[in-house]
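Morning!

As promised:
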Amino acid sequence: MVSVRVLLLVMLGVSVPATLQAAEITHKNLRFVEYPDFPEAHSTWGSIGYSKVHRKVFVGVTNHRDRVGLFEYDVTTERMRLCGFVPDLANLRAFQWQGKVHSQIVEGPGGAMYFTTDGGESREEYLMDHPHGYSGGFVMKWDPAVNRLTNLGLGLQYESIKDLQVDPTTGLICLVTYPQVRFLAYEPSNNDLRDLGRLGSDHVPRVMFSDWWGNVYYVDWRQRLVKYDSEQRRLLFARESLPAFPGTPGEYIVTGITAYAVDRQAGVIYLVTYGAKMLAFRPSKEGLGPVEDLGGIFDAPGQPPWRYYCPNLALGSNGKLYYFIGGHGMYAVKGENIALMEFDPKTRSKRIVLTTPLKEISEVTGSDVRDPAGNIYFAGRRDDPDAAERGESGASRPFMIILNPQRSLR
Amino acid sequence: MKPLLIGLLVFVAIAVALHGEYVFFTPKGSFTAEVSLENSALPRLPIYRNAITSLEVVGAYAVGGTSSRPGLSPYLFAVSLSTRKLEFVRDLNELIPGQRAIQSGFGRGQQGVLFAGTMPDQAGGSGHLLQIRVGKEGIEAVDLGTPIKGEGVFALAASRGREELYGIAHPSGRFFVHELRTSRTQVFPETAASRKQLELLANYALTPSDFLTRRLVVDREGRVFGSMPVNRLFRFDPGSRRVDVLSDELPEVWGRRPLGRVDAWAQGPDGMLYGGNAGDGQLFRLDPNTGRVTNLGKPIMMPRIKGLAFGADGTLYGVAGGEPGYTHLFLYDPADRGFVDLGNPRFPMTAPGIEQGIAWRGFQIGSMAASEDGKWIVLGEEEALSHLMVFPALE
């Protein structure tokens, strides 16, 4: 019997020669994929999602001015393709220019992918409701089966739409706008858009997430969880704020959640806050559900524990959480490097897996985008001086990151 | 001191313009009082029942009256300007069920008494008149009854000397006088839209809530002023009990007369009346004696001026714009710089649980008032969860 076990282990080793222990995660566990046919591409902003039906990853890539390309990555063929540019696909007029896709790209009923558009630069930020400003963000539906983009209409006049969630069964779409932090519920089946009101302060929390019953979550200005109960069609507010480090400044509190990862089997949704906390939220069908404080996402002596920027998170098939820290001027590792972290939610232990200079990775976004093979997908940016003339918010080039913590990708 | 501060504001505006950006108006001493919060142990107003549509300052308290979404009822509340927190809350449903809004504005009576009118939740319902006192014991509200059966109270003002309330009924737009001593109401149909005017307004898809005067004002002589369709102003003389339609109209942008109505009033130190035209957002001055209207221009590109108030130094503050765009706070200095756009105000909010303070940016502001000494300007939000924003007026 022992010999059989040894033989099985040997066979496993032969068939998966690049299998690595967690401690052995290296750059070989990462692969970078470029976006073709978009030479002026500048950045990505959490605008990534996975279709289980089509086995494809979708990414919205922007020149950070007025052109957003929709890309699809075929997991099977490992090919990245430009589906088209949103203004052309959606027949937008010049006054309906869009600066970026800031939302997640979320799979809805039938494998259709949903996303929203965002003004995303000075013309919106400062000209606002002027005719030279921003007309407003749209809800878009991409059908990968027929390569067709459908414009489902404007959210609110002049407002960007920062994020969305889609009920895969009913098709209900929840949205949050910028800059007023208005929570919208939209039912495409009867074109019913309801404005449930302003929930936030002066900095819009960027991330919404859903549970497995189709309820959608966001935060208010006190960083309390707000649940849109899809059955009762109303908002429920948590009594208490999410855990935060003592002394966390108000601007960190109001910005809420920056990323999440879902462990359906365990009934847990992991959350990263703008105040750099890792939390375990266990949603309940009725009411909100308990939140467990798992500690900080990074520890460095002498540094404020809340000041780490992490707009990404994913759960590996090994049960560990992976995230890149750094970006927007906030870096954990000396020398302004991006750190890939591994967090074990069972032991609450965390470690730096590897670091990269900004010319390789400068910022990473994306929540819980993964395929059944254990590949995790992130939207990445790297510093690129050649891109200095393109767009605002830094000179960068976008690319997609694939991470497989348990397998070499090279 | 005033020119220096205005100059400083202008300098900041120029510096900002050079950068193509803006800075927020956050004067020292400004604050936001958290008024609304769902599911809280703190005294707060619940969601969808707290749009601050009526606002006045009495002594140390900013007193608010709210509007709610359909099927819900409004509140009265009081924020202490010294403790900077919500002190008292009164659910109107406990006093008068079936009301949706206190949007009339407050009329000031004697000895700190306020009056307000209510709008019913259901069409065909009846609004009520309220008498309100705020003191250390809380909010005392008395139902004075219904002035006109089957109509709401859209706008209200009070005479300090005559013990009369003046109102506009909704949806008819009729002007009424309610005598406090006898509870008698006299109705004046002259301010209501004619059938022909109603047909015209219907062509523009306008309802009475869009074209009736949002506020009334009483001048130093006790005369009452408001607007009426289409784009006109009226004056009620309480001595002769007569309504006169003024020959000067509200300032007009070509083609937009149907949108004209008064959104807000403020009486200047010189007795002149200053008004905001909702239709296109013009500030105007009305000489109450001659009826002469002077168009002072537009502080921003958007329509609406929902609030006006004078600071202690005679500077006029206002809030312009709003849905579907964003409110701008502005000041008007006729002697020097004219309009100065202060943008969306952003004042700090501290409260139990957010002791470190958060920044609160006002996007939708529906009401405005000055403290009795003119040292504070108070702004009321119109949101699903609204707050009170307060700043010290320039000295």
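Residues 315 and 321 of chain A are 5 Å apart (CA to CA).

Hope this helps with the figure draft.
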